Amino acid sequence: QEVTLRLHHFLPAISNVHRHFIQPWVQKVQAESQNRIRIQIFPAMQLGGAPPQLYDQARDGVADIVWTLPGNTPGRFPSIEVFELPFVAHRRAAVNVRAVQALYERRMRGEFADTHIITAWGHDAGVIHARREVKRMEDLQGLKLRFPTRQTGEALRALGAAPVGMPVPQIPEALSQGVIDGAVVPWEVVPSIRLHEMVKNHTEIAGSPTLYIATFVLAMNKAKYDGLPADLRAVIDANSGEAAARMAAKPWDEEGPKVEEMVRKRGNQILELSEEERNRWQRQTTPVVEAWLAGMKERNIDGGALLEEARALVTQFGQGVS
Amino acid sequence: MSEGAERGPVATAVRALALAGGAVLLATALLTCFSVGRRWATSQPVQGDFELVSLGSGLAVLGFLAHGTLRRTNILVDSFTTWLPRPVVAVIDAGWMLVWAAVALVLAWRLGIGAAETLRSGTTTMVLGLPTWWAVGLGACGFAMVALAALHATGRLLRGEEG
Amino acid sequence: MAPEFLQAALGFAALLGLIALRCPVGLAMLLVGTGGYVTIVDAATLLNYLKTTPYFLFASYTLSVIPLFILMGALAERGGLARDLFAAAAALFGHKPGGMAMGVVGACACFGAVCGSSVATTATFGRAALPELRRYGYDAGLSTGTVAVGGTLGILIPPSVILVVYAISTEQNIAKLFMAALVPGLLATGFYILAIWLLARWWPALMPAAPRLAAAAVRGAMLNVIPVMLIAVVVVGGIYGGVFTPTESAAIGCIATAAVGMLRGTLGLPALRDALLATAETTAMIFVILLGAEVFNAFLALTSAPELLAQWISEQDYPPYGVLALLLFAYIVLGAVMDELAMILLTLPIFFPVVTALDFGLGGTEETAIWFGILVLIVVGIGLTAPPIGLNVFVVSSLAKDVPIARTYRGVLPFLATDLVRLLLCVAFPALSLWLVRLLG
Ligand code: NA
Ligand code: NA
After folding, report:
1. What residues have CB less than 8 Å from B105, skipping those under 6 apart?
2. Environment class of A2 (CB within 10 Å of its CB; exposed 0-12, middle 13-18, buried 19+)
3. What's the order of all strands across the beta sheet hosting A37-42?
4. Which of A179, C84, C338, C369 has a CA that sits 20 to 30 A from residue C97's CA?
5. What is the DSSP letter of A301?
C-alpha cells in the first residue's frame, strides 16, 4: 500500500527551514518507507488560507501535515507558551528542541489532542535587529520593534519598547517606511527578508536562559496517521519526537551562525548584551511571567509547575552546551 | 453606479449593511491617521493598529458583498451571448444568481461552524488579545445576507424587472 | 499529457466555458476551483477548508489597502475633485485643437494619483467629462475612447489596485512596485496626449476647439485643484519618501479627501452616502474575484502543474526574452477575452516562477519581479480597452448608451497602438521601470 501526504507550510521554498529541515525530513521518511510514503511539500501557503489557519488545516485534513507556530493562534495552546516567556529558553536550538518535545510529551498532549503531533520544538536565541544600537534597557525606550509571539511582545513592552505586531513578510516594507525601527527574529530568518540590508545593529543576548524563543509544531491529521498501515506508521514514528526535533534544530544552530558571519563580514555591528544588563532585563520582565501565571490559573492550569519543569528541562539538556 | 433607489425590506437592509461597512472602513481610516500622527509625535503608534485595520477592512468588505450582489456589480462577459433574446439572457443570469445564492449559503454555513470552533478554541488576536470568533461569525452573517440578496435579485430577474 | 497538466488544462477550459456562458468571473473561479478540489481531494475536506478561509482572506492587512484606495477615489469623485481637475485642464487647453481630450487624459493622470482603480477612474470621468466633450462637438467614438483609455491611467499611475494584487500574490514590496510604475505611467500619459495631438492635426473635424476662457476663470479653475494636487503629493510622496505604508497613505488620503469635500461643501451627507455605496460595489466586485481565485489557485496548486511547468521551462534553456515575449503575448490574448484581475490571479502562480527563474541581466530576482510586474500592468491596461472584452469600454458604454460599442473600440485603436510601443520600450529598457526604485529603494 502506498500513501501520498500533503505537507503545507508558510515559508517560501528558498527559506532555511524548508531546505534544511522540511526537505531532509521528507526525504528521510520517503527513503525509509521505500518510497511507499510520498510527501508533497506545498510551501508559502500554496494550498490556500492564512498562517493562523494551518493548525486547523491539519486537524481537518485540508493538509495532511503542517508546520506551524502555536503562537499564530494566541490563547489556544497556553501551555507551550511557557517556553516563549522571557528568560526561560536556552540560546541553542539543540537544547530547546529536546526540552519542548519532552515537556510536550509529559504535559501538553491534551492541548494538541485533535492532531497527531509529530514533533514540537523551539528555535535558538532570538536577536534584536534595530536601526539604533541596543546596549542597555534605556536604548529600547520607544523603539518600535516587530515581535513574533504574544509573550515576547509583552516582554518588550515591559522593557520600554513599543512592540508592533505584524506578519514576517511585512517587515521589510514596514522597516523601509519607518513603521518599525527593527525586529526581533533569530539569525536564520535575516537573509530571507534582507533584514541586514536595512538595519546595522544586531544585539545578541549573552548566555542562557535567553530573552525569548518561538515554538513550533509539525502536526499531522489524526485520521490519516491512524489509517496508515502499521509498518508505515512505524516509519513516521521513527522520525517523530526527539529524533525529528534534533533534525529540526539544524536550520537554526547550523545556518544561524553562517548568517551571523555573513552579517559581520558585511560590516554590520553585532553587539552582545552584558551579563549584568541581562540580569536587569530579567528582573524587569518578571511581571510578564507573573501575568502569564495568573492567566494560567484562570484557565485552571498549574503554570507554576509547568514553568519549573520547563526550566529544569532546559538546565538538564543544556548541561555542557554553551 | 450607485443611485440605487430600490425599495423594499431586502434592499433597505442590504444598503444599511453596506453603509455600516462603509462607516467601519471610514473609522479604520481615521484610526490609521490617528496612529500615524501619534507615531510621528510620540513615537508610540496606537497599540495593535495593524490588527484593528485588518479587522476593520475585513468586516467592511463582508458588509459590502450583499450590496454588490443586489446591484449585480459582478464582472461577467456577454460577448458570446449578445445574439440571445433579452428574456433568455435574464433567465441565464437568474440561474447564475441562484447558484451564487447557494454558494453564499454554503459559505455562511461553513463560517458559522468556523466561528463556533474559534469560540471553543479561545483563539485571540496577537497584540490586543481580542477574541476572533465574533468576527468570523459576522462573516457568516455577511454571507447569509449575500444569499438573501442573491435570491431577491433572482426573483427580480425572472420577473423581468432588470435587464 | 501528464495527468497534472490535464487536470489544470481541464480546469482552465471549464473556467472559460462558464465565463462564456455569462457566469460571473468570481463565481466561475469558485465553482471550477471547487470542482477541481473535490475531484483531487474530496468534498468534506473542501468544506473544512472553507470554514475560516473567507474571513482570513478578507481580514488581511495587506489587502486593506484596496477598499481604502477605492474609498479615496469615490470620495474624490463625489466631492467634485475629479470635476475640478477636468475643469482646470479644459480651461488651460480646451481652446486648442483636441485640447479638451488632452485635458481628459491629463485630469485622469492626476486623478490616478489618488485613485487605484481603472473602473472607478473611467466611471468618474465618464460622468464628469463625457458630456462636456460631446457638448463641444467632439466625435462620439473619440470621446468615449479617450475616457476609456484615460481610465486605465487609474491603475497605470500609482497607486494601483492591480499592482497591490500583484505584490501580494508574488510577495513583493508594494512601495517599490509603485515607484517602478511612475515613469511608465507618465510615459503612457504623454503617449496618449501625443496620439490626440496627431489625430487633431490629421482629422481636425473630430475635435473642434472650444472657446478660450477669460483669464479670471482660468485662474479660478486652477485654484480649485490645489487641494487635490496636495492630497496626491501627500499620498504618493508619502509612499515614495518612505513616510507611510501604502495602507496608511490610503487612509490619510481618504480622510484628507473627505475633509476637503466637506470644507468646500461639495461632500454633504447624501454624497458621502453615495461614495460609501459606490465603494461597496467596486470592493465587492474585486473581493468576490479574490475569493474565487483563492479556491481556484488552491486547486491549481493541488495539481502541481504550476511547479512542474516552471521546472520544465527552466530546463529547456529557452532564451529569456523569447519566454518573456511568449508570456506577454499570452497575457495580451487572455486580457482581450477575460477580466484582468482574474487573469493575473490565475496566471501568476504559473508565470511568476517561470519568469523569476530566468536571467535578464538585472540585479537579482527582486528587480526581475518588479520589472515583470510593470510589464504585466501595461498588458492589463491594454486588456482593459482592447476588443472584444474591455472592461473600461463596457463602463463607458453603460454611461453613453447612444454610442455603439464598436465606435468606442474604433476610438480606442490609436491609443492601443501607443500602448504597444510603450510595452516594447519598457521591455527593451528595464531601467524605465527600475531607475526610481534603484534611486529611492
Ligand atoms: Na492610480
Ligand atoms: Na479585457
Report:
1. B143, B144, B147
2. exposed
3. A37-42, A3-8, A65-68, A215-220, A116-122
4. C84
5. -
Kind plus residue range of the DSSP H or E element containing A66: strand A65-68
Q: Can you state the angle between helices C81-93 and C246-263, rounded to 10 degrees?
A: 80
C340 CA distance to ligand 2 middle (Å): 6
| Contacting partners of chain B (3+ CB pairs under 8 A) | A, C
C282 Cβ under 8 Å from any chain B Cβ: yes
**SS (HEC) of A157-193:** HHCCCEEEECCHHHHHHHHHCCCCCEEEECHHHCHHH
Which residue on chain B is closest to C258 by alpha carbon? B26
Give the amino acid at B13.
A
Contact across the interface for C48 and A167, Cβ inside 8 Å:
no
CB-CB neighbors (< 8 A) of A179 in chain B? 39, 45
**CA-CA distance, B46 to B34, in Å (whole number)?**
8
User: Chains near C, with 3+ CB pairs < 8 A?
Assistant: A, B
Distance CA B130, CA B113 (A): 19
Kindly state the DSSP code that residue A215 receives in the 8-state scheme: E
Radius of gyration of chain B (CA): 20
Rounded CA gap, C306 and C8, in Å?
9
pLDDT band at A65 (very low <50, low <70, confident <90, very high): very high
Read off the amino acid at residue A142: G
What's the confidence (pLDDT) of residue B163?
46
Residue whose C-alpha cell is 463641444? C136
Strand partners, A269: A201
pLDDT tens string A87-144: 999 999 999 999 999 999 999 999 999 999 999 999 999 999 999 999 999 999 989 8
DSSP annotation string for A101-120: HHHIIIIITTTTTTSEEEEE
Q: In the structure grid, which three cell numbers stand for residue A116, read together? A: 497527531
Q: Considering only CB atoms, which chain A residues are within 8 Å of C242?
A: 176-178
> C16 alpha carbon to ligand 1 midpoint, in Å?
29
CA–CA distance, C202 with C196 (Å, rounded to integer): 10
B74-122 tens-digit pLDDT: 777 776 777 889 899 999 999 999 999 999 999 999 999 999 999 999 8
For C331, phi then psi, to 5°, come to -65, -40
C-alpha cell at C287: 473581493
Q: Which residue of C has its CA nearest to B80?
A: C20
Sign of the CA dihedral running C320, C326, C332, C336: negative
A272-297: b (≥16 Cβ within 10 Å) or e: ebeeebbeebbebbeebbeebbeebe
Compare all CA atoms of chain C with the CA of B140 and give the residue at the minimum distance: C55
Side-chain half-sphere CA neighbours of A107 within 13 A = 21
